[in-house]
Amino acid sequence: MPQIDAAAQTQAWLDTLSPEEIARAVAYTQGGHWLLLWGALVSIAVAWIMIRTGVLTGLRRRIEGSRPRPKRASLVVGVVYLALTWLLTLPWSVFANWWREKQYGLTQQPFVGWLSEAALSATISTLFGGLLIVGLYFIIRRTGRAWWAWGAGLVTVFLTIVLVVTPMFIEPLFNTYTSAPDGPVRQAVVELAEQTGTPSDKIYIYDGSRQSDRYTANVSGLFGTARIAMSDTMFAQGADLPEVRAVVGHEMGHYVHMHSLWMLGVFALSAAVAFWLTDRLFRPAQRLLGADRVQGIADPAGLPVLAAIGAVLGLLFTPVGTTLTRLIEADADQFSLTHAQEPDGLAKALIKTAEYRAPSPSVLEETIFYDHPSVENRIRRAMEWKARQQAAGSAPLSDEHAAG
Ligand SMILES: [Zn+2]
């Protein structure tokens, strides 16, 4: 039996993409990196407009009148702030999240459909966000200098609740989830579930093609509500059984290794660091933005100042966040290889994600921007795994899929 050449097989997979497809993926992906920067600038510009117009400071003055009503002020100012920010940012969102996706052939959603879903999700975030803002300002008023630590605790508890309720109350507003219909796909998924100790009644197919043509699957929820969902785009793009096993194996890796919990822990730490920095940066940022009518960090009319700081910190911390998710994604791939044992199925699926993640970025680009390891690196690891299996004598003998 000839020795498997992992490098050559990786290249063979990458060669199934045409130069045009690769050029398009590179343009889409690298344009996306710039969107991060422009998006942060848009957030700062919107914050600046809110400060200049004095709409929030005026609102707070009117609510408080002659006596302080801090809870009511933070609720009303918070909700108005979130709604206005959404409106002012809307042209940018239309461009970045709908028009650009359409240009690259990644969505078929009509504009009206996109807009009504965007409005629905903005309404949900304004309601949740308004409550969070009230809690956060309560903490800032009550806990003084240590607010950043308490605040990090609050946002973490809040995110935990949101994660738990998402599959029950939020996702059904946007998509229909059904358990996989009887047939070979269901059978493959159930077998794999039994083997990995994942509850097989937690695996769904949803109509993801409504919003996006991206070939994708995910895990959502937390604790009892966690579930794995495959977008119908997988099947529209002809996913075969090895592919389904490889993809579901990857998602089971996220599920079994409880990656959401790890990420929640990382989120808590980052929130503490971000709030601590925000506490130190508030005064200089306030001066820089000319927000002299804001009465300090406990004033909800200072929300745009917090948002501007958040935009800058978000940009600076991008490589930390992406590096952590890359580690988790690599772990899920490893889980898939170990349990589903479908290196070529995994490669075939990964090639289909290359249209929205250029497959072969430079090391620097991957480190800073990629929230998944590059397709090239992921396929190489799969091919190396296959070569090791063969060397150990337990190989899946055929490599008939290798040519794609
Ligand atoms: Zn993943």
Automatic annotation (TrEMBL):
Transmembrane segments: 35-55, 75-99, 119-140, 147-170, 260-277, 297-317
Needed co-factor(s): Zn(2+)
Domain CAAX prenyl protease 1 N-terminal: 15-176
InterPro entries found in the cross-reference section: CAXX_Prtase_1, Peptidase_M48, Peptidase_M48_N
UniProt keyword annotation of rRNA processing present: no
Alphabetic keyword roster: Hydrolase, Membrane, Metal-binding, Metalloprotease, Protease, Transmembrane, Transmembrane helix, Zinc
Peptidase M48 domain mapped to chain residues: 182-385
Protein name: M48 family metallopeptidase
